[in-house]
From TrEMBL:
Origin superkingdom: Bacteria
Protein's organism: Pelatocladus maniniholoensis HA4357-MV3
Residue ranges annotated for the DDH domain, each copy included: 96-247
Family the entry assigns: Belongs to the RecJ family.
Protein name as annotated: Single-stranded-DNA-specific exonuclease RecJ
Length: 731
């Protein structure tokens, strides 16, 4: 409701993304001071400031992560020494070790990493991964008892286990030793394991705090290799590559030690000696070239969110025999090929193919792919990944369209009141509904809880949030209505009896209305700085490499340019817009090509818009060019003025619903525009031929509304009668 103008949330087509733009304040003096020390241009230093880096020391540590003196993991992880002792005993005594992994990219790369490293070190080791569809996440009593029956002496969990009190208690009853390696949030009651390695148990200041499950596995594997005197390149290099894959695919923060190791790993991956990684790179088409039209995946929404590394070592001087690790890691022989992958190559190419297996396939395919040394087997498994990922994409597209149809039919008019979206349908695949949830968040700007019926009595679902909404706290708020649930601030999973669905929707609406305001119901777009198109060139793109690797907590820079002209546009691939934009500066026109992923709902774009974008390198026919990847657009800044300018063609006053309004037709550029003003100064403006109007005090803050809706149509007809014309109506 906007001050007595009838409103509706329904729109048949949205002209531009429904976003909140947050442009970082430009700290010019601080950027100039940093520039003197970093030898980077002020624009680059502004980007550092936006990432919380404001001192010379912080800048040097960020730009040269190799300069950081890493503390020994033995000093940081209290149970690491015990874990190494248990593993060494099992290896020496030839006792069976079993790994319990997880079915996402982090869990599968962690499992493969520990299988490879433990076998390299002489261990007798096998693994199990629970069924996503039938058992859900984490180690369970069935797996524990199967391990016991197989003669296993030590269970090693990866990327799970921190909340598995009962299964681990059962393992202890059976006299099994257990090491938990996990990175998820700490529960109130820790499991009774022999050792627990979890970075969430470390101080927030620890450089290891942000590692994912694969990071914990990497630390454990390399530490064990060092203790056994086998920390050579044959074990370190493959482990680092798997660490890099899992860290990026799991959307772990690319800060701290992750940034240091991932940076090395990205250099190593293009010339990996692992058959599985070579095969994945081949079938995914990464091969050192840029993303092509229609190739951007959404396997882990990385989305979304989402949404932007060769050798690694564990320690410096505090750790036994540190020189061998750093020497192997930093040796020029490690990086003979100067080509490097980027996190987006993993996030949008390799990661989705890995995640697709865990979502709708058999995780054993991925474990075999990442542990085989046979290129024939690797290519066979990689092709299976490719086919499964294509099927996953088709499923996502179908479920997304079905979900949108349900929302547009039944929910869209109540979204601003409910402030949360709950969609449940039968026959949707649980493995992909989380991706669809992320896309619905992007589309509607509200938290999304999406589910599917497992049978007549049970629902299983996934949730995705927005910055001001805490998904796990929302699930806790509804815990008496739920079965199992878990998650964190941005995402979660849950199950519930089908009979509780109505009550769950009501409870979530109640929670959402406690923490969300209307202004929160737009996706937040954080923008680093303004740039003109004449600044966008290869030199700027190369300078941005200083920030890499970019990803979570170190995002790819986002720039914006005001009042560009869209001079060419067409839809391509699976609903993308390919376009050319231009900006005139000092009577000279600068043009650049751009791509807008999944923007078919906004086609055609208005001729004049403000754009927000990332830079991307495009390789075509042997040529390399810099293009824009649009992430936002809004009404052009040339229109950021009150609805009071322009030539008046006619004016009138009228009464509608017992309220007095004024109206007029104005010459706004080349087209006439109808404007209707209410007693509080709000204006509804409609250009001739348009089906979408603007409603607000000025164009900058105005909201787009669909004037074909009954409420708007009635007041427009009243205004036109008062003016004695119908020429302003859409043609």
């Amino acid at each position: 409701m906007l001050d007595q103008f009838p409103t509706t949330a329904t729109k048949t087509r949205r002209r531009l993304p429904n976003q909140r733009w947050q442009i970082y304040p430009q700290k010019i003096e601080l950027a100039q001071n940093l520039a003197k020390a970093t030898n980077l241009p002020s624009l680059l230093n502004q980007l550092l400031i936006n990432r919380g880096i404001e001192t010379l020391e912080e800048a040097q540590a960020f730009l040269n992560s190799e300069s950081i003196n890493l503390p020994s993991p033995l000093q940081e992880f209290p149970d690491l020494a015990v874990s190494l002792e248990l593993l060494q005993t099992c290896i020496t005594c030839k006792e069976k070790i079993a790994i319990c992994g997880d079915y996402d990219a982090d869990g599968m790369t962690s499992t493969a990493l520990l299988l490879r490293s433990l076998r390299w070190l002489g261990a007798e080791v096998n693994y199990a991964i629970p069924s996503r569809m039938h058992e859900g996440y984490g180690i369970n009593k069935r797996i524990v008892e199967e391990f016991y029956n197989e003669g296993v002496k030590l269970i090693l969990t990866v990327d799970n286990g921190i909340s598995a009190f009962e299964p681990i208690a059962r393992a202890k009853e059976l006299n099994l030793q257990v090491i938990v390696t996990d990175h998820h949030d700490i529960p109130q009651q820790l499991p009774p394991a022999n050792a627990i390695l979890n970075p969430k148990l470390l101080p927030e200041s620890s450089i290891y705090r942000g590692v994912a499950g694969v990071g914990v596995a990497y630390i454990l594997a390399i530490s064990l290799a060092q203790q056994l005197g086998q920390a050579n390149s044959g074990i370190i290099r493959p482990m680092l590559e798997l660490f890099t894959l899992g860290t990026i695919a799991d959307l772990a923060p690319l800060t701290g030690v992750n940034r240091r190791w991932v940076k090395r790993g990205l250099l190593q991956l293009p010339k990996s000696q692992l058959a599985g990684i070579q095969a994945l790179i081949q079938v995914s088409g990464v091969g050192g070239r840029g993303l092509g039209i229609g190739e951007r995946g959404h396997g882990g929404h990385g989305g979304q969110g989402g949404q932007d590394k060769g050798q690694g070592e564990i320690t410096n001087s505090q750790f036994p025999n540190p020189k061998s690790i750093d020497a192997i890691a930093a040796s020029p022989r490690v990086v003979q090929n100067p080509k490097s992958l980027k996190p987006e190559d993993i996030g949008f190419r390799l990661g989705p193919r890995i995640n697709a297996i865990g979502r709708i396939g058999d995780p054993q395919i991925m474990i075999e792919l990442l542990t085989t040394d046979d290129m024939g087997i690797a290519l066979e498994k990689a092709m299976q990944c490719e086919q499964i990922n294509q099927h996953r994409q088709q499923m996502c597209e179908q479920i997304e369209q079905e979900a949108i149809a349900i929302v547009e039919t039944s929910h869209v008019t109540s979204l601003q009141e409910d402030r949360v979206l709950v969609v449940v349908q039968p026959n949707w695949h649980h493995g992909v509904i989380g991706i669809v949830a992320s896309r619905l968040v992007e589309r509607y700007g509200v938290p999304v809880f999406i589910g599917t019926y497992e049978d007549d009595k049970q629902i299983r679902g996934s949730a995705r949030g927005i910055p001001e909404f805490h998904v796990f706290e929302a699930l806790e708020y509804c815990q008496d209505l739920l079965g199992k649930f878990g998650g964190h601030k941005a995402a979660g999973g849950f199950s519930l009896p089908a009979e509780n669905l109505v009550a769950l929707r009501s409870r979530l609406v109640e929670f959402a209305n406690q923490c969300l305001e209307i202004q929160h119901l737009k996706p937040l777009l954080k923008i680093d700085a303004e740039a003109n198109l004449n600044q966008i060139n290869q030199e700027l793109y190369q300078q941005l490499h200083a920030l890499e690797p970019c990803g979570i907590d170190n995002p790819n820079p986002v720039f914006w340019t005001a009042n560009v002209q869209v001079i060419e546009q067409q839809t391509v691939g699976k609903g993308h817009i390919k376009l050319t934009v231009a900006q005139t500066i000092d009577q000279q026109q600068f043009k650049i090509k751009a791509i807008a992923w999944r923007w078919r709902d906004y086609f055609p774009l208005p001729q004049r818009i403000d754009i927000a974008y990332k830079l991307r390198e495009n390789h075509f026919n042997g040529n390399t060019s810099i293009e824009l990847e649009l992430v936002g657009a809004r009404v052009s800044s040339h229109s950021y003025a009150p609805f009071t300018s322009d030539t008046t063609l006619s004016k009138a006053a009228f009464e509608y619903n017992h309220r007095q309004y004024t109206c007029g037709i104005y010459q706004n550029g080349s087209l006439p525009e109808l404007r209707i003003k209410n007693p509080n100064g709000k204006v509804l403006a409609i250009e001739q031929g348009k089906t979408v109007g603007l409603l607000g005090n000025n164009r900058q803050d105005a909201k787009e509304v669909d004037i074909s809706q009954l409420h708007y149509d009635a007041i427009i007809q009243a205004a036109l009668r008062a003016l004695g014309t119908c020429d302003i109506l859409p043609h």
